[in-house]
Amino acid sequence: MSNVIIIGGGAAGMMAAIGAATCGHEVHIFEKNEKLGKKIYITGKGRCNVTNASDMDVLLKNIVTNPKFMYSALYTLSNDTVIQMFNEDMNVPIKIERGNRAFPVSDKSSDIIMGLTRRLRELGVNIHLGEEVKDIITENVTDDTQGKKRVSGIKLKDGEIIKCDSVIIATGGYSYQTTGSNGDGYRFAKNTGHNVTDILPALVPLNAKEEYIKDLQGLSLKNVEVSFVCKNKKIYSEFGEMLFTHFGVSGPIILSGSSYVSKYIKRGEQISINIDLKPALSESELDDRILRDFAEVINKDFANSLNKLLPTKMIPIIIALSGIEPHKKVNEITKEERLGLVRLIKQFTVNVASTRSFNEAIITQGGVSVKDVNPGTMESKHIDNLYFAGEVLDVDALTGGYNLQIAWSTGYLAGISVKS
Ligand SMILES: Cc1cc2nc3c(=O)[nH]c(=O)nc-3n(C[C@H](O)[C@H](O)[C@H](O)COP(=O)(O)OP(=O)(O)OC[C@H]3O[C@@H](n4cnc5c(N)ncnc54)[C@H](O)[C@@H]3O)c2cc1C
């Protein structure tokens, strides 16, 4: 049996504690907040999309960064086992919704936190709340000639040093910092010789360059297809729902796309979002449709001809961008003008100015380099008995319960890998 300190009482830290305590270790969680799981509380709009019940290949496809690193962790604690744990060990019944998203039946994230806390107490985990860890203490491995180090304890904010045999860093990322995740884990990792890749906001809304996007504020588009393009190369495309805001664009398919383009934006490369407002119609089908609409209003102004085709808020902008004189009679519009209109509707372009800040990012991309961590144990390759779990690692996924699954799986694997 060994004495394990877990830094961070979020999803990864709590699951790490369950893993380590189940193996018979003495476990201590140090959490700087006054309660556990502050971020879990706000997940899934307060309902907590606790995991995703899809097959493993779908899980892996939804991991944007370093999916291969996740193989062992996901096979050690799968999504099915997470659901079973909540149902059986924690008495929190789980239901499956559209897209295999798993939620507590009660629709309350607080029930997930309560279930975890109960289980931690049952397993005799020591929970230290309001305790901020300032540093990790290491020492030379005495019988090693290579100068290898091992972890020997932590230093608290008040200077107190607490000795232990192993440490699991589960401090989260850098987004929604009011929940406690303010990047401390990256500092601990760097100070102990680990590489930390650039961190970026992901699953994040995007600021638009075009001033007129403000006029579309509040408009939600349901069945559109967006393509994220950089230097004429399509980076990502998806069909679904998006939203215009006072600063730019948001909504499910924009958030997903942001995870693929955040690094390009950081490098200063121009990203354009091409929105196909009528993805169900080919260009010629859309042209036919417009011709039919025009036939019904043949003597009206162009400005009054698009009501059946487009949302009201969109019409003045499409008219302005089309270059067609708004008071031109519909029957005077040329074929070229009409085909230009078709292209505009099939490819309404928003140029991205920047991402919104970390405080609006559901997830942090980047973190402790997976090259420095053993994927079969989550142990550091540089410091013996030091482990990493959760969002602090350079692994991130799309929305749908995948990010919490990463936290549960890496946390549990780190916990059960602690050496006796
Ligand atoms: C608004 C929002 C909604 C989300 N919804 C979902 C969802 O429905 N489904 C999903 O799968 N994912 C969701 N996510 C992502 C998911 O919440 C995170 O990926 C997950 O919580 C990461 O878990 P973690 O344990 O690694 O980090 P965290 O949950 O951030 O926990 C880290 C903990 O470490 C503590 N800590 C940090 N530094 C120190 C220190 N120095 N000393 C002591 N303690 C410290 C922090 O206070 C914190 O409690 C959402 C995220 C946000 C922001």
Q: Any overview of this molecule?
A:
This protein has 420 residues and is α+β, with helices and mostly antiparallel strands. It has 2 domains: 3-200 and 365-417, FAD/NAD(P)-binding domain (3-Layer(bba) Sandwich), CATH 3.50.50; 205-355, no CATH class. Helix content is 30%, strand content 25%. It contains 12 helices and 22 strands. It has helices at residues 11-22, 38-42, 56-61, 71-76, 79-89, 109-122, 184-191, 252-266, 283-296, 315-322, 335-346, 402-417; strands spanning 3-7, 26-31, 51-52, 63-65, 94-97, 101-104, 126-129, 133-140, 149-156, 161-163, 166-169, 200-202, 206-208, 220-230, 233-244, 248-250, 271-276, 348-355, 363-365, 383-384, 386-388, 396-397. The strands form 6 sheets. The protein has a 6-stranded antiparallel beta barrel. A 5-stranded parallel beta sheet has the order 7-2-1-11-21, with helices on one face. A hairpin with a 3-residue loop joins strand 5 (94-97) and strand 6 (101-104). The chain is elongated and about 90 Å long. It binds flavin-adenine dinucleotide. Residues 7-13, 30-33, 38-40, 42-44, 48-49, 132-133, 170-172, 175-176, 179-181, 184, 362-363, 390-391, 401-404, 407 line the site of flavin-adenine dinucleotide. Flavin-adenine dinucleotide (FAD) is lined by residues 7-13, 30-33, 38-40, 42-44, 48-49, 132-133, 170-172, 175-176, 179-181, 184, 362-363, 390-391, 401-404, 407.
